Amino acid sequence: MSTQDPSPATTATVARLAHENSLALAARDAAHRALTEQLLLVLADTLDSFDRLLAEGTEGTAADPESYRRSLELIARQLETAMSGQGVEPVGRIGERAEPATHHVAEVRTAPGAADDEVLEILQRGYRYRGHVLRAARVVVAVTGGPEQGTERS
After folding, report:
1. What confidence score (pLDDT) does residue 12 get?
2. Which helix (H) or strand (E) holds 139?
3. C-alpha angle 129/134/140, rounded to 5°?
4. Could you say which DSSP state residue 101 is in?
5. Nearest CA to 120 among 143, 148, 87, 152?
6. In sequence order, what are the residues at sequence separation of 6 or more whose Cβ sits closer than 8 angstroms to the Cβ of residue 141?
7. H-helix or E-strand spanning residue 106
8. pLDDT given for residue 54 in this prediction
9. pLDDT band at residue 99, thresholds of 50, 70 and 90?
10. 29-38, 99-108, 127-136: lowest mean pLDDT where?
């Protein structure tokens, strides 16, 4: 058996490929870091909104609970918009058919006029990021037939 030293061309090719791979990895790492920082800044803005609302104290909420509720809704929309801007989309809507890949059926109920596996209620929203399900929606679905209320299905 003879071992041969790699030719200078092979060595140069391996070195070039290793360098290109290193540059690509560094670029992906930098992009990931920038995306993470952007998301953290959006979360910080949302926390600032909560801080401003909480700084108003309870005297403002007791006087006008509807205004307080609207403020909370605005903060929730701020966070939802930020998540959507980062590619996170909600999963699970009332009236759609529950799918095993995106819905966790926590309960089934008989519901006149509803189709089998139709989502009747969202217990916990699910989320998808870039086509990947981060968390399945926990839902209550309709079933035709006998009463199975409280039955959990997967």
Report:
1. 86
2. strand 137-143
3. 115
4. T
5. 143
6. 98, 103, 105, 107, 108, 109, 116, 117, 118, 119, 120
7. strand 103-110
8. 86
9. very high
10. 29-38
Instruction: Give the model's confidence band at 10: pLDDT under 50 very low, under 70 low, under 90 confident, else very high.
Output: confident
Cβ neighbours around 76 below 10 Å, total: 12
Which has the higher per-residue pLDDT, 113 or 147?
113
- Whole-number Å distance between alpha carbons of 90 and 76: 13
- Could you identify the residue written with the tokens 């095993």? 100
Beta pairing, strands 103-110 & 119-124? unpaired
What is the four-CA torsion angle of 18, 19, 24, 26, rounded to 10 degrees? Answer: 110
Rounded to whole angstroms, what are the CA distances from 32 to 26, 95, 135?
A: 10, 36, 21
User: Tokens standing for 92?
Assistant: 């699970």
User: Would you call 56 helix, strand, or coil by DSSP?
Assistant: coil
What does the alpha-carbon distance between residue 89 and residue 18 come to, in Å, rounded to a whole number? 37
